[in-house]
Amino acid sequence: MIRETNGQGQLLIGGIPAEDLASAYGTPLYVYDVERIRSNAKAFVDTFKKHKIPAQVAYASKAFSSVAMLQVAKEEGLSLDVVSEGELHTALQAEFPVEKIHMHGNNKSLSELEMAVDHKIGCIVVDNFYEIALLTDLLAEKNTQMDVLLRVTPGIEAHTHDYILTGQEDSKFGFDLSSGQAEKAFQLLNANEMTNVKGLHCHIGSQIFETSGFTLATKKLFETMSDWRNRFEFTADVLNLGGGFGIQYTEEDDPLALDQYALALIEEVKHQSEILEYTMPEIWIEPGRAIVGDAGVTLYRMGSIKEIPGVRTYASVDGGMTDNIRPALYHAKYDAVLANKMHESPDQEYAIAGKCCESGDMLLWDVKLPKVEPKDLMAVFSTGAYGYAMSNNYNRFGKSAVVFVENGEHQLVVRREDYKEITRLDLSYNQQ
Ligand code: LLP
Questions:
Q1: N or C: which end of the chain has fewer CB within 10 A?
Q2: Atom 22 (ligand 1): residue with closest C-alpha?
Q3: Which residues bind substrate (predicted)?
Q4: Whose CA is closest to atom 20 on ligand 1?
Q5: Tally of domains in the chain
């Protein structure tokens, strides 16, 4: 991983010394290199363009949603995947083109569906039979039509380094292909005049490095589409292959370049279209992590240091599982440096602790750093996806601020939550 450093041994983010950002905005601080967000988006978009494949690259906004982020996504010509009223509201605030918004969710509420229908979003990815009933009743009541995709589970469960094949997918999401559920759902939607079935959707997992899971899913979906063409005279206009493209967190991770993921999909889609003589559908993908993950860095100020002789040395930061719950939740690994000591050799091992009242609140268990002293500035890399998005107010800590950096300039895009704002929703209890 390349780290930009200036002559004073300071880490640079988008050309700006990390210390300047930390001094200006405080810590913990999420910093995004916007050029990186743009180049990640372009890697997908340009690959489809180059190969003349009609496509939509939908940013999965669950990875990091804020008005500024969605403005950048809009500028890059991305579509958008939302899963809640909050994510849709953020998109509307960012004036995201509604026809490019898709809504997901395994238990969409009536009010979520209503919001999507009323704002005429591009498409709803239908997930289950309960939703079909809610949606078709709603559309009939409003006498309006909606484009839908059918989310299916192709029986492929992908992990970072491999995938497992199961006959029937044990997942809370989507309609199972092997048991005939998907076909039944298709028939219900296809027969309903208010729902226009555009095609199929699948998402096989997240942080996937190998293309074999994606290509196998593509093959399975094409086989289903071909079967339905023959039996129901249905031709899919859209094939949505979901997100999940893996990124590098530590040196141990060896992901593909983003255009290579797109290329693998393109090749398989072309191949399947040819052998099944299927008119090439529009290809949609939904990357979240791959767009924002490696564009984000979190800055922390170091505080207390506790050495347990012969065991380990704990060094605490001024954040933790409130701004990054991934290590506690998934044992996720990260790489970190001391942003103010880039010229010093990282020859000491530390366990980096958060400040929440919980022993499991650890950010990194074993990272090599130069000697840590209070007030040093630590930078944790690749925190752009599912960091701010999953941040929380445990111990009533306020959420951290977000800063965008581009063209040598920095700009606050999400304000820090002040501790006084923590009680803004609280009401006092007056006992009668
Ligand atoms: N599409 C669908 C239907 C999804 O469920 C997801 C992620 C994505 C796209 C985007 O996946 P990505 O490209 O970001 O891998 N909180 C976890 C990740 C959960 C992903 C959930 N769905 C984490 O921090 O690793």
A1: C
A2: 206
A3: 289, 326, 330, 358, 386
A4: 206
A5: 2
